[in-house]
Amino acid sequence: MHNLQIFSIRYGKGMNWAFLCAFTLTAAALSLWFGSVKLHPSQVFDALLGKDSASAAARIVLYSRLPRTCASLLAGCALAVSGALIQTVLENPLASPNVIGVNSGAGFAVALICAIAPTAQPFASVAAFGGALAGIFLVAGLARRTGASRMTVVLAGIAISSLFSAGIDTVVTLAPEALNGVSDFRIGGFTGVTMSQLAPAALLIFPGLVLAFSLSGQTDILRLGSDTAKSLGLSVTVLRFILLALSAALAGAAVSFCGLIGFVGLIVPHAMRRLFGEDSLPLLLSSALGGALFVTLCDLLARVLFAPFELPVGIVLAFAGAPFFLWLLFRQRGGRTWSD
Predict the structure, then answer these.
(1) In angstroms, rounded to a whole number, what is the distance separating the alpha carbons of residues 314 and 306?
(2) pLDDT tens, 281-292?
């Protein structure tokens, strides 16, 4: 009977992995296929294979839908894994990049570098990483020094997020040309994204994902609690610093090309924990796939719901994420404080 239960659990999780991979690939294919202009699947395949590259269909696929699909997959992976890392380190299920000021910190840094040095826009991903890092360590520092409760950490994060948002408004007011399409940047979306914009962000995101996966064993030890982790020889402070820096790099790189989209890092890790459990490696891997799936589907909905009109994907994510955040908020009753 015990062996049957183990087999059932493993088989169930194996099916979950299969469905998650299949749904993510399907969402990517649908994102290439559907849009305001109707294309036949054969036209999409021909464009991807380099056939008839001068046709209108090929240009739509190669210069509009393919970069947009890659952007949604990349942003979903980065933001979901960033959220999972933040929730683990802060021991707070309500934490996510947009809630505690990571996204807005990255956005402020991008606005600042675009205003001060417009020609340095290719380095926006690096600037976004610095801004995200500032946001996350402000919140983590407050939590550590004050022993703040989960709710207080969230409120502090919201205050810091508002502060960075005010900084963005200040930059845009003083230098209106700093951010082209500032409203789109604030809402978040993938309209007009190009492969050249994605390349610098990918150079941060892919190594960040690999390093996060490689540290999953130490992350599992950290989840046992600081005292237990220290007794097992783990350098808790160093590991927390690395994980927070990784989450900042992932979120900041995503913000540099997709704007301030939110709730991905909140919703996806919670959903993946229900499907794959709390162990770090399955959680991070499934969050990467689940984030890519979730953002790509939301972007697809944003394009087709009111076609030929298009919603920014940030609006669709807000409609999905805000009720979920409120539901989580009302589930939390006090809770542990966060400290060493």
Answers:
(1) 15
(2) 999 999 999 999
How much is the CA Rg of the chain, to the nearest whole Å? 20
What pLDDT, in 10s, does the model give residues 9-31?
Answer: 454 577 889 999 999 999 999 99
The model carries a pTM of 0.85
Q: Is residue 339 part of a domain?
A: no
Identity of the residue numbered 162? S
Write out 116-129 in H/E/C secondary structure: HCHHHHHHHHHHHH
∠ Cα 340 82 303 (to 5°): 155
Domain of 127, in residue numbers: 2-331
Structure tokens at 14: 């194996």
Peptide bond into 308 cis (omega under 30): yes
Which residue has 């995101």 as its token pair? Answer: 205
Euclidean distance between CA atoms 261 and 283, whole angstroms: 22
Q: Indicate which CATH number applies to the domain containing 207.
A: 1.10.3470.10
**Comparing C-alpha atoms, which of 91, 86, 92, 84 is closest to residue 105?**
86
How far apart are alpha carbons 63 and 27 in whole angstroms?
A: 19
Cα–Cα distance measured from residue 57 to residue 74, given in angstroms and rounded to the nearest whole number: 24
Q: What is d(CA 294, CA 196) in angstroms, rounded to the nearest whole number?
A: 24
